Amino acid sequence: MRFTALIIVVLIQMNLFAQYNITGTVTDKMDSKPLVGVNVYLPDFLIGAVTDTNGFYRISDLPKGDAIVKFSFVGYQTVYRNVFITDKDIMLNLKLDIKVIHGEEVVISGNFTSTQHDNTIKISTVRIEQITQAGTPSLIESITRVPGVNMISKGPGVVTPVIRGLSLSNILVLKNSVPMENFQFSENHPYLIDENGLERVEIIKGPASLIYGSGAVGGVVNLIPEPVAKTGEVVGDANITWYSNTAGVMSNVGLKGNQNDFVWGLRGGINSNKDYNQGDGKFAPNTRFNRYNIKADAGLLRRIGTFRIFYEYSHNKFGMAVIPAFQLVTENERKNEAWFQELQDHMVISQNKLFLGNIKLDINLAYEHSNRQLKGNPQSDEFKLVDMDLQTFSYRIKVNQNINESAKLIYGIQGMLQGNKNGEAPDHVLPDASVNDISAYGLGQYTFGQFKFEAGLRYSYRNIYVPRQEAGGHSHEEEEEVFIQYDNHFDNLSASIGATFTMNEQNLIRLNLASAFRSPNLAELTQYGLHGTRFEEGNRDLTSQQNLEADIGYHLHTKHTTFDVSAFYNHVNNYIFLSPTSDTTDEGVKIYRYSQTNANLYGGEAMLHIHPHPLDWLHLVSTYSLVIGEQTDGSYLPRIPAQDLYFEVKLEKDQWKIFREIYLKAGIDFVFSQKNPSIFETESEGYNLVNMGFGFDIQMKKNRINFNVTATNLLDISYYDHLSTLKDLGINNMGRNFAISVRIPFNIKN
Questions:
Q1: I need a labelling partner for 461 at 20 to 30 A (CA). Which of 247, 502, 597, 696 fits?
Q2: Which is higher by pLDDT, 43 or 573?
Q3: Cβ–Cβ under 8 Å, residues 124 and 113
């Protein structure tokens, strides 16, 4: 026995410390001259190198297994190469071509970390520069340019994403691959997110429960942080954006360093806005919001793995555009004084990756503490109406194992312990409760010639416990007292199978069939009381929502053209939604109740990007999206966005005098009429919005100052978006807005 243990230890040591190298040269594809200063980076390992005067690079001390190597250089196309390290060093030479259309990226939100073209599921990415150029004070609004992605809004501050017609508890938003938990069960409760310190946003459209669990039946929005600093660097940046419509200011300053593979970062920011102005010039009362946050991280990069810890604190005040506020908020101001949510959120994430030969072991732990307070009329006896604390501890352990160059496995366990506790405020929107999740899953991938197959299975268990307590937290007369108590569990199976057929270097087809689930949440089961201006009741008889979606997509990418088209059909058993009833409270307030029905959602998206040769300065982009949501009885589902067709023309020039990356763009968004509302919605007329923008970089020694100007709704159109919750109050969406942004990088040590 001791001898066997000794052999195992020796094998582990050999596996851990048998390290290999990747070397090579990078040259220009046209003239074969060496390129100096090319960044060569391995995203999985957070390490890289820069080519020298001969175009040579070397990355040392790599473990066995697969890896993705990223080659990036200003003015050239970013290229990714997959390598499989066995028992010898690898020579990887590359010729870079000039940049024409922005190429594929490495995405981490899919089942396996890979390039976009290698994924069996389509993952859209929105880079931080695209978010800045969108010119909106909301991160969620800036990603709605992705076809199939929309938002439910109560002004620019209170927004929540919609993917292919599904929203709220059907969508997961991740920070550093960890789901956020901050009372996002209602359109009144926004995710506490911003673009400060992000590199990009990744979006999965369609079921993703296999990897992410309950809540990912509609899709996933993953916020990817900025990369670590290069070895020996201490660098930073200052960013500021001004919004004309809301007199808004969004600014943040960040600093990061890397000394002997000890990496760290610090960033702080604010986003402060007045009430927005509609297209008719009137202001939208109490849509103001103020956000402050601090982010910090630290970590070690070692041969055996990477070990990082992230901390984020966010303090937010969102005005509530509700009828009781309109008599109190009569001036367009910035400060929140009446009828506003005050939300504070602390999040700590421990992100660890171990390289054990052909195995990569991810151990992610997270703790989040979110406090939600609702402040009403400051002149009343009860100014603070709601005070809830939500504490969540989650763990995610994943094994990524390479069998050989053709076969990979992923398997792991995930879990969550969560508790909600009400304070002294009178309204208990959610009861005191505890939730316990645990799940296990496995997924395999096999590549055979031009085909790549994936299949997997997941089992999940959730227990929800609500001790006996007075419903809603209100004091009632003894004969009117209502109590709630709940103790139940849900267990679910989900599965997926997918394939990619790569016809040649330019064409590929994706086909996926996925079954996903969502357990009913605490609000849907137990809510009882006023929420905003309506009385909402949970339904303790709700069962798990289960869906089956088929998705097929075609992708074309050439040097001058990118084309994507996809179609989906999503059948949902026991679809959970909130709908009005014919009942009212004694005070005459309409009662809304959660219920279930079988439903179908179907539609598709398309994107075309043309960079016609030899007009190297011209880009033509068009997108289209359609989703139809119906109950099986023929009636329509709520919160289904209208059809959308978008055209954009963009002119670019690489260099002129001291200016770099110059662009001028103009776009028009055709939003069709929504003539298929649900029984408690009204139809919405179509509208057309014109947007414009320009920007450039200014070269200052080794850094580039970035400058952007964006105009949205340039013609100041008055319109209602179908997903705006202010539509029923007669409040239009935002009118004309100019956004001016500046980014100033700086070096402390380079």
A1: 597
A2: 573
A3: no
Of 627 and 106, the structure prediction assigns the larger pLDDT to 627
Average pLDDT for 307-333: 92
Residue 505 has pLDDT above 70, yes or no: yes
Query: Cβ distance 514 to 210 under 8 Å?
Result: yes
Cis ω before 677 (30° cut-off from 0): no
Pairing of strands 198-205, 178-179: unpaired
The span from the CA of 226 to the CA of 198, in Å, is 5
> What is the domain-level CATH number for residue 23?
2.60.40.1120
Number of domains the chain contains: 2
∠ CA 401-180-440, rounded to 5°: 35
Q: Which domain holds residue 92?
A: 19-99
What string of DSSP letters covers 121-132? S-EEEEEHHHHH
Map tokens 């807005």 to a residue.
Answer: 737
Q: Is the residue at 245 inside a domain?
A: yes
User: End of a domain among 53, 76, 99?
Assistant: 99
Residue 115 lies inside a defined structural domain of this protein = no
Q: Tokens in use for 73? A: 């250089």
Per-residue pLDDT at 40 exceeds 60: yes
Query: Per-residue pLDDT tens for 631-646?
Result: 988 889 989 999 999 9
Q: Whole-model pTM? A: 0.88
Strand, coil or helix: 714: coil
Which amino acid is located at 77 in the chain? Q
State which of 58, 76, 99 marks the end of a domain: 99
One-character DSSP codes across 636-669? BPSSPPPPEEEEEEEEEEEEETTEEEEEEEEEEE
Is 110 a domain residue? Answer: no
Residue with tokens 């307030």: 589
Cβ neighbours of residue 658 closer than 8 Å, sequence gap 6 or more: 698, 699
Q: In the numeric block, which tokens belong to residue 212?
A: 């992410």
What is the arithmetic mean of pLDDT over 161-172? Answer: 90
Q: Are residues 431 and 382 in the same domain?
A: yes
Is it the case that residue 546 has pLDDT exceeding 50? yes
